[in-house]
């Protein structure tokens, strides 16, 4: 999980195919702004060397930076940030979090003939989860299930599945977790769960949060955030439903359940 407290935007202009081009780099650091500037300059230097045709050793770390404002940090394994459209997001390398959208499968033979009523998409997901937890690979784990607007969110208790590993890929397949979400988990080397509503679902015009922000943009963002926070209050992002599998004792998940409204009866957004 590559989340940083300090950012610096560094720019330089170099000729490319005979035309002056401006190149920008985002330096990052958890030490200081000056260290972020140094990092940004080093990144620009890599670009300059590539333009000259110099050999630049490939990076060994293929995970991407999470370029978002840090809102709260419970510990190094659990950090809350604000994403590109203004919602709060839980980033974790302590818990495995699954995002399962309600995808309607193709009707079977009996459903086509009208002899069997088709299940609702969310009911299909829940049935699959209830069967999945009985398998030997998951028998010693707990699965804390939350309903979302489109499906379910599941927090796995008792084991952390490292993104990208064979066991991770099997869990994604067995649970019908969205593969786009799984790819994001791999590229960012963590799990993410949205804690506050998507703006368009609560009638708020979306604002693009491109972090880091200039002081003027940040001031403008605070005005938008006041309206967004007020509009979010009547809604929840998820709702706790049940815990499946083994009754694994979990640490307090209040940093997820409280801001997401998981213990309320508010409409989901």
Strands, helices and their partners?
Elements: E1 6-16, E2 19-29, H1 33-52, E3 69-75, E4 78-82, E5 88-92, E6 96-101, H2 109-112, H3 121-132, E7 142-148, E8 151-157, H4 166-175, H5 179-188, E9 191-194, H6 215-232, E10 238-245, H7 254-260
Antiparallel strand pairs: 1-2, 3-4, 4-5, 5-9, 6-8, 7-8, 7-10
Q: Helix/strand/pairing class, anyone? A: alpha+beta
Provide the residue-averaged pLDDT. Answer: 89
Instruction: Please give the count of helices.
Output: 7
Beta strand count: 10
What number of structural domains do the residues give?
Answer: 2
Order of helices and strands: EEHEEEEHHEEHHEHEH
- What coarse outline follows from CA principal-axis ratios? globular
What is the radius of gyration?
22 Å
The major beta sheet can be summarized as: 4 strands, antiparallel
Assembly form of the protein: single chain
Strand percentage lies at: 25-35%
**What is the strand arrangement across the widest sheet?**
3-4-5-9
Uncertain runs are: none
Percent of residues in helices? 25-40%
Structure notes:
30% of the residues lie in helices and 26% in strands. It is built from 7 helices and 10 strands. The chain has 2 domains: 6-52, no CATH class; 69-260, no CATH class. The protein has 269 residues and is α+β, with helices and mostly antiparallel strands. Strand 4 and strand 5 (88-92) form a beta hairpin.
